[in-house]
Write a structure and sequence with these properties.
This protein has 419 residues and is an all-alpha fold. The protein contains 21 helices and two strands. The protein has a domain at 234-419.
């Protein structure tokens, strides 16, 4: 087995130098949220099954899906990679990637992040490491850490490299989550101008407009950039979700509901957690505003009832709970029992569930019938809710829930604590 270097001087263990362009093509598609990433990696595995990072990349993608159906395949993949690493004597960078994947699968995200950031100090041009770190920081809830991660490597990157605009888009999002809206807006717009297909940069700019309350500008931005992001993977539904939020901000509830019906409702058929999160959050926001959403909850109930035993991501589980609570579905109680059992564990998400998730889960469950009790739960962890991860725009659902519960329980004097 031989090692080969790419144009950024990153070394890969592979059977042939021809494997590197395939890996790079998969990485580019991943950065652009294209639909052919796994197809490219399948082709790479067919031509060069010993390209170690190709298999690690597959593992990252399976873990990113956040679905328990991949638990067994990931365990098998780790066993295969460990044997492969020993047989091929892969590089230290590749070994670190394997360890990161192992830690992430074991729900030790903080340790995985620490390893990734150490790796990036030595290899700042490792875009796969950067992107996985970006994701993990996102679900650690730290905009500052996310921004610092990308800022550390910006000056190391050649400005003419095709992946540099993707890095700009990532940094723009981190800046937005830190509240640095002017810089985030400028950098995000620059990234999209350089690469119109960068949906993450497009999304970062949309977040700025949402945070500033500039709903008309946000709506125009997504309309203008739509040709670049329309044909991407399921992440496009999240961008469409932002279009619906802009409609809510403009007071156009009918348009938001039409967006749901025409563009979002069927997305949950793919059983991807983010699609469920989008839809549940949007319907609940509409209900907070007094909009009757009718029978639209039922398809979500059917999906969420199948996930009551999941323990992949607390953020997702809290959203799975919403349709069950709103409709008083039979699956609500076993879902709450799963939260309680989960909170007894020692993994990262289990500790988070114990320290923050249990209160939020009770708030969601009690809100429809006992808004006062729900409000008490929310107030107990309002300064810790950021720890569940996701964006500020996504977590704002819990602030809105708190305000709704305060009004429903006639405790308007507490609204100032939920502003």
């Amino acid at each position: 087995m031989t090692v080969y270097s790419n144009e950024l001087n990153l070394v890969y263990t592979a059977s042939s130098a021809e494997s590197l362009p395939l890996f790079d093509a998969a990485l580019t598609s991943y950065l652009g949220a294209r639909t052919d990433v796994m197809e490219i990696l399948d082709g790479l595995r067919g031509t060069d099954p010993d390209m170690f990072m190709g298999q690690v990349f597959r593992g990252y993608l399976l873990k990113l899906a956040g679905h328990p159906q991949f638990v067994a395949p990931l365990a098998d993949l780790i066993n295969s990679l460990e044997a492969q690493a020993s047989a091929l004597s892969v590089t230290s960078r590749e070994q670190t990637h394997l360890k990161v994947l192992q830690l992430w699968i074991e729900d030790q995200s903080a340790a995985a992040l620490s390893l990734l950031e150490q790796l990036l100090l030595q290899h700042p041009l490792d875009m796969l490491a950067l992107r996985i770190a970006h994701y993990l920081h996102f679900y650690e809830g730290s905009g500052a850490a996310m921004s610092a991660s990308t800022e550390r490597v910006l000056n190391a990157w050649p400005k003419d490299h095709p992946h540099f605009p993707y890095l700009q888009g990532m940094h723009a999002f981190g800046l937005e989550e830190c509240g640095d809206y002017d810089q985030a807006l400028a950098l995000g717009q620059d990234a999209v101008q350089a690469n119109s297909q960068d949906i993450w940069a497009t999304h970062a700019v949309a977040h700025v407009y949402e945070m500033l309350g500039e709903y008309e500008q946000g709506n125009n931005w997504l309309t203008e950039t739509e040709p670049g992001w329309r044909d991407t993977n399921n992440f496009r539904y999240h961008v469409i979700w932002h279009q619906a939020l802009f409609s809510l901000g403009l007071g156009d509830h009918d348009r938001a509901l039409a967006i749901y019906d025409q563009q979002l409702a069927d997305s949950i058929n793919d059983d991807f957690y983010l699609d469920v999160c989008n839809n549940a959050a949007l319907l609940w926001r509409l209900e907070f505003l007094g909009v009757d959403v009718g029978q639209r909850w039922q398809p979500l109930v059917d999906i969420c009832a199948a996930h009551i035993k999941d323990r992949e991501l607390l953020f997702a589980n809290l959203h799975y709970l919403i349709p069950l609570a709103v409709t008083s579905a039979p699956a609500l109680e076993p879902a709450l029992e799963n939260f309680s059992d989960w909170a007894q564990g020692s993994t990262g998400q289990a500790v988070l569930c114990r320290e923050v998730g249990l209160q939020l889960a009770q708030a969601v469950a009690q809100a429809p019938q006992q808004p006062g009790a729900a409000l008490d739960c929310l107030l107990a962890v309002k300064d810790e809710t950021y720890r569940i991860g996701g964006s500020k725009a996504q977590r704002d659902l819990f602030r809105l829930l708190g305000r709704h519960a305060a009004k429903q329980s006639h405790r308007e004097e507490l609204l100032s604590q939920l502003s």
